Write a sequence for this structure.
């Protein structure tokens, strides 16, 4: 799992929100790329900010043991949809 | 020996004159449009080993830990990976200024692996038509957005560059919004600074001081709304616009001759005080860096300030704006540069 420490949680939520606004005339494959990156970062924050999982997840993250692309993309998409109030 | 090495924040290396875009606002001094066309700027390129030796010499002879690679379009240079490897080996942080057209996903991944810390990419509008028109290249808009998406996806860093012209100024807010949504780390809001090909389009593209003032108002508000840093690196004269009103925006003045100077190496090893000027200080392959930037070489450039600015209390800070633009548009470093000259009626001397 990769993350981008430069983007805060609120910043990411706003990016996800605005991406819907600005994406009308942009190739969907390009928008999807950005959306997946935002989703992963949001999920990362969600994991590390959860008191029950943060220490464990951070340890695994730092050890390079988390592979978000293999199995959790869909979860991240659902998370973003929840954030945006979109149907699951 | 080490004590004589000048400390520099950055060196700009123009690794090629070639470009796959034909931007209407292009300031590259070797493109047609400069008043010095009678003595064309030397065009050419060193082979890979000589280029690496040139770059190594620049790093050996200075205390500089950051290099910006530009052009032309730097990705047209096939040995760019070798140049990046040298910079990484020397523990020099690297920025690439590119139009993004050739930054496909494998290239982005490769460059990030080779240590590129920042990409500077143009985003001239939220509109495909306007961006492609100003870039002189169909497909430029889709390509640069794809490049930004690849960089975002692979957790690289990029800033979006908006060159403010009369044509695209109405699009500034939407451009900032789009850049933010794509994950830009910041915005560079550069007013159109004519040189090279850009000089041919002066009348069509050059914004008035009023238009730039309105753009700064929009940028200030957008910086707050999106919490995104915005910097204006092309000088804006305080006698034309009160820049102190804009607490969120960063403003720069000409740094030639200081440790923050943008010394610029061209593909043949010629060194200039900045990337906008035609003034060549000498060739780094032939002389030491310290000799090239010695006061007797660079003082003519550093000390040039238009007579209009003499009474101004900010004379030494502002220096009249971009003297290189004065040089390439009007033939003299002491001329009033276009933004001052064309808005002279609004200039309020600061006494």
């Amino acid at each position: 799992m990769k993350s981008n420490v430069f983007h805060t949680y609120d910043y990411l939520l706003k990016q996800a929100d605005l991406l819907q606004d600005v994406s009308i005339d942009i190739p969907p494959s390009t928008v999807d790329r950005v959306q997946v990156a935002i989703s992963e970062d949001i999920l990362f924050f969600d994991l590390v900010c959860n008191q029950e999982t943060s220490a464990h997840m951070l340890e695994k993250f730092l050890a390079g043991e988390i592979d978000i692309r293999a199995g959790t993309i869909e979860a991240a998409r659902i998370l973003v949809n929840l954030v945006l109030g979109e149907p699951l | 020996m080490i004590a004589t090495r000048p400390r520099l924040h950055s060196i700009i290396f123009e690794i090629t004159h070639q470009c796959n875009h034909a931007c209407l606002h292009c300031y590259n001094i070797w493109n047609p449009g400069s008043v010095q066309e009678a003595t064309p700027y030397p065009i050419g390129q060193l082979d890979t080993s000589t280029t690496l030796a040139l770059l190594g010499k620049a790093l050996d002879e200075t205390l500089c830990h950051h290099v910006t690679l530009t052009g032309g379009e730097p990705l047209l240079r096939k040995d760019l990976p070798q140049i990046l490897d040298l910079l990484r080996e020397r523990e020099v942080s690297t920025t690439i200024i590119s139009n993004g057209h050739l930054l496909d996903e494998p290239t982005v991944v490769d460059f990030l692996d080779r240590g590129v810390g920042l990409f500077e990419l143009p985003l001239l509008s939220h509109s495909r038509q306007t961006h492609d028109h100003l870039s002189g290249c169909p497909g430029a808009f889709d390509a640069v957005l794809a490049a930004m998406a690849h960089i975002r996806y692979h957790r690289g860093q990029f800033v979006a560059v908006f060159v403010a012209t009369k044509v695209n100024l109405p699009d500034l807010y939407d451009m900032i919004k789009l850049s933010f949504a794509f994950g830009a780390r910041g915005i560079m809001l550069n007013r159109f600074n004519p040189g090279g090909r850009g000089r041919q389009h002066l009348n069509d593209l050059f914004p008035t001081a009023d238009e730039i003032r309105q753009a700064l108002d929009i940028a200030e508000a957008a910086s707050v709304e999106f919490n995104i840093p915005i910097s204006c690196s092309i000088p804006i004269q305080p006698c034309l616009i009160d820049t102190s009103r804009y607490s969120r925006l960063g403003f720069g003045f000409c740094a030639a001759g200081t440790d923050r100077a943008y010394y610029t190496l061209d593909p043949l090893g010629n060194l200039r005080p900045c990337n906008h000027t035609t003034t060549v200080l000498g060739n780094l392959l032939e002389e030491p860096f310290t000799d090239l930037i010695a006061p007797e070489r660079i003082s003519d450039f550093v000390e040039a300030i238009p007579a209009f600015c003499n009474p101004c209390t900010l004379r030494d800070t502002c220096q009249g704006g971009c003297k290189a633009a004065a040089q390439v548009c009007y033939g003299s470093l002491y001329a009033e540069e276009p933004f001052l000259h064309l808005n002279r009626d609004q200039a309020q001397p600061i006494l």
User: Anything to note?
Assistant: DSSP finds 13 helices and 13 strands in chain B. Chain B touches chain A at residues 126-128, 142, 145-146, 148-150, 152-155, 157, 174, 177-178, 180-183, 185, 226-227 (CB under 8 Å). Residues 25 and 198 of chain B are 4 Å apart (CA to CA). Residues 2-303 of chain B form a domain with the TIM Barrel fold (CATH 3.20.20.70).
